[in-house]
Amino acid sequence: MPALKMAEQKPHPNEPRIKLQKNQRRSAFISGPISIPRSGPLFLPMNHPRAKLAVIFDLDGTLLDTLQDLADSGNAVLAARGFPIHAAEDYRTFIGNGMLNLVRDIFPEGHRPAEGDETEEMLLEYRAAYARNWQNTTVVFPGIADLLNELKARQVPIGVLSNKAHDFTIKCVDAFLADWSWDVVLGARDGIERKPDPTGAFEAASLLGVAPEDCLFVGDSDVDIYTARNAGMRAIGVSWGFRPVEELLEAGAEAIINAPGDLLELLGGR
Predict the structure, then answer these.
(1) Range list of H helices, 59-198
(2) Residue 226 CA, distance from chain mean position
(3) Which fold has domain 4-18+27-65+139-267?
(4) How confident is the model at residue 268 (pLDDT cuts 50, 70, 90)?
(5) pLDDT tens digits for 74-110?
(6) Hey, where are the domains in the chain?
(7) How far is CA 127 from the centre of its chain?
(8) pLDDT tens column, 105-123
(9) At a CB cut-off of 8 Å and minimum separation 6, what does 34 contact?
(10) Cross-strand partners of 160
């Protein structure tokens, strides 16, 4: 596969539908028109007088390989109730929609905790397990350090927007990505709709000091791609994450990068 794969854009419906239900399940998509140019290069060159670009990253599966620690935490909840555990690879499909959805999805059909107190109890147990496990095996993906070094050298504003709980998002960035100065780090917070709702993406762009259309949103799941498109940002998928490339393309990714350094091509060269 070539280093950089450009994706054919799919048109949006004309009627926007921007209200998500609470705790929307995976692959939720707010449809509607987006203000993304359909021709020419992805971005103005970095040395162009009007070019001020920023990059917003997803966390799990994009910057950090957290799969085993997340799986161990979920399996601890299952084992405590006598349910069979999952292989770590199975968690690739559970991750990306926030902890609340994860703790429901890992249970077998017919045994999932009910909405309300039962789900909240499972969430507390999962949080306690993840608090024990979150830094056991998590590592930064290869190539990320070099990419972040180059982005900082170019003075490109960078941020993180994750569906991981905000406190754990901060912990992970502080523990594994502290060598770089982040302009904004946002996780899932009470009262703020999670991705793919664009609220957090708009907030991140505002804090970065750029218009949404001047942001690259980089992620490994359809949720990330939908978030980018819902916010009018450039949707960039990564092939090294937790979800298959086909899912990213189906969601409407404008480009798929196979190594972190390939992102620099979209910013006007290496």
Answers:
(1) 67-80, 99-105, 117-133, 144-153, 166-176
(2) 10
(3) Rossmann fold (3.40.50)
(4) confident
(5) 999 999 999 999 999 999 999 999 999 999 999 999 9
(6) 4-18+27-65+139-267, 67-133
(7) 19
(8) 999 999 999 889 999 999 9
(9) 12, 229, 230, 232
(10) 57, 185
> Taking the domain 67-133, which CATH number applies?
1.10.150
Measured between its terminal Cα atoms, the distance across the chain in Å is 20
Question: Structure tokens of 90?
Answer: 């199975």
What tokens were used for 264?
A: 């620099």
Q: Which residues contact 221 (CB under 8 A, 6 or more apart)?
A: 58, 61, 95, 96, 241, 242, 243, 247, 248
User: Strand, coil or helix: what is 65?
Assistant: strand
Q: What is the pTM of this model?
A: 0.83
Q: What is the DSSP string of 33-63?
A: ------SS-SS--TTSTT---EEEE-SBTTT
The whole-number average pLDDT for the span 60-67 is: 98
Catalytic residues: 58
